[in-house]
Amino acid sequence: MFFKPESPHHKRYTNVPHLTLFGTPLKRVETFKYLGHWVTEDLNDNQDIERERRSLAVRCNMLARRFAKCTDEAKITLFKAYCQSFYTCSLWVDFTQRAYSDLRVQYNNAFRVLMGLPRFCSASAMFAEAHVDGFAAIMRKRCAAHLRRMRDSPNSILRALADRWDSPMLARWIRLHAVR
C-alpha cells in the first residue's frame, strides 16, 4: 500500500515499480484490514469507524432478539459485554465528525432498542439511570487506557511515541478530555 501524502504540496509518486515477494507480484490496494483495523491509503479512520458501527448494530439486534424477555439488569450486563468494546477505537485519530457521530447515534439507539425505550428519550438520562457509561465516557476511557499502556510499555519506541507532544494519539486524548 502506498500512502497518499498529507498535503498536495508533497511529491506524488507517479512511477512506482511493481513489487514481488519470492517471485509473487504484490497487489496494490487502497484499503487493507490489519488485525481487525481498516488501514486506508489516506490514513483516514472513517472506514474503520463504519465497520464498528455496523458491527455494533448487528450485535445489538442479536441481543434485542434473543434476550427480549430478560430482566433489565441482565440486558445491561449483556450490553456492557457486547456493545462497549469498540475494538481499535483508541487508534482513531483522523475521521470526519459525521462518521464519529453516526457511531455515537448507533450506540445510543442500540441501548434504546435493547432496553425497549422510546426512540427520542434522552441519551444522557437513560445511561445515567441505568448506571451505564455513555459513548463519550467509553471513548475517553479507551483512549486513556491505550495511552497508559503505551507509556508503561517496556518497548522504548512505544514510550517515545506516547510522550511526543506532536503525537496524533496524544492530540486525540487531549480533545477527548478537554472541557468545552
TrEMBL record:
Taxonomy, superkingdom: Eukaryota
The protein's name in its UniProt record: Reverse transcriptase
Species the sequence originates in: Loxostege sticticalis (Beet webworm moth)
